[in-house]
Each structure stands twice: as structure tokens, then as C-alpha cells.
Specification:
By secondary structure, the protein is mainly alpha-helical. It has a domain at 7-128 and 154-170. Helices cover 60% and strands 6% of the residues. It has eight helices and three strands, in the order ααααβαβαβαα. It has helices spanning 7-28, 33-61, 77-87, 92-117, 134-140, 147-150, 176-188, 194-206; strands at residues 123-127, 144-146, 163-167. It has a three-stranded antiparallel sheet with strand order 2-1-3. The radius of gyration is 18 Å and the shape is globular. It starts with 6 loop residues before the first helix and ends with a helix. The model has no long low-confidence stretch (mean pLDDT 92).
Length: 207
Amino acid sequence: MAVSDNPTVQRYYRSNLALSAAVERALAQAGTRAAVEAILRAYAEAAIADAHDYYLAMRLDAGVRGRFRMPVETPNREQWDASLDWAMQQPETALLGVGQRLVANAGRGQILAGIRADAKARRWARVTSATGCAFCRMLATRGAVYRSEESADFRAHDHCGCTIEPLFGGRYEPPAHVRADQQLWAESTDGLSGGDALNAFRRAVGA
């Protein structure tokens, strides 16, 4: 099942997954902190460049007129170093997950920077798959989110493949699997809130 009805979103999602897999393969061969940092810098730069091109392609697809100078977003160095300090002391599986998340977040940050700077951008939606985890699928059921609400915070976990669809006006129609999850959420969480609602949704997803 397609993650989106938009071919540009589909292509970017597949590219993002391929980049994440490449990051983890490269990190599995790294033997030192210096090698890890070099790998992550290179892949983060690639993620930022891909996100930059994707955002502009989405803008073009939407028929947005006018010139737009896309800002370049750089990862937060303190958060980056703190994550690596922890991961380097853990088993390799933790390093692979943290490294993938740092690179993916570099791309996500670039898209969000564009949304914040672009007067034509109104909202964004989370792009996830029908087989994603319950947490990500729950977030996707929220549909289109206005810039002023959550544009500075894209919640992601290690190995998370979710991306962002910038929206430039008009009515947002979620793909079929998100609409199905919206119905499942409503049915499985009736009368519940917070962690109880998420746990009920997890059970429903796993049923």
C-alpha cells in the first residue's frame, strides 16, 4: 500500500529508506568514533540535500508561484554529540539506531526549516507506512498539522522511517491506510486518553 497518493512523496519516502539502510550498513563497519562521525556527517549532508530538493519539488507540484530561497538547516551539535556519547557506550545495535535517527532528523529538520520560512506553506503531514509502529501511525492519524502547532517538533524514534509532506493550501486527504487508522483509533480509544488510548490503539493494531 502506497505511503501517499503523491508520487513525489512516494519517491522521497523510498529514497529516505534507502539512505537509512546505507547509513546502518556503513556504521556497522566503523571502528572508531572518528569514523562514525565522518560517516554521519557525509550522510547527513546527503539527507539535507535530498530534503532540499524534495521540498522544492513539492512546491512545484503544488503550483506555488514566486521565488523562494530555501534556508539550510544544520543539526544541533550539542544534541548530536550527546546522542553519540551515549550510543558509543552501547551495543552496536544502539549505535545503528541512533545514527540512523540523527541522519533522518537532518533531513526532517531541513523540510521543517523550509516550512517555517515559506509564507506559502500552511501545514504539514506525517508520512508513514501501513506497517509502521503504532506510535507513528497514531501521530499520522492527526492529519495535517498547522505550522504554529508542531512545526518545530517532529517526534521520531531510532530506525523510524517517517517523513514529512509539506502542504501549500487546499484540502489534505490522507492516504487510505491513514484513513483506516483514523477509524481504528476512534473505535479502539473511545472514552480513553493519553497512554491508555495509545496502549489500546497498540492492541488494536496488533490484533
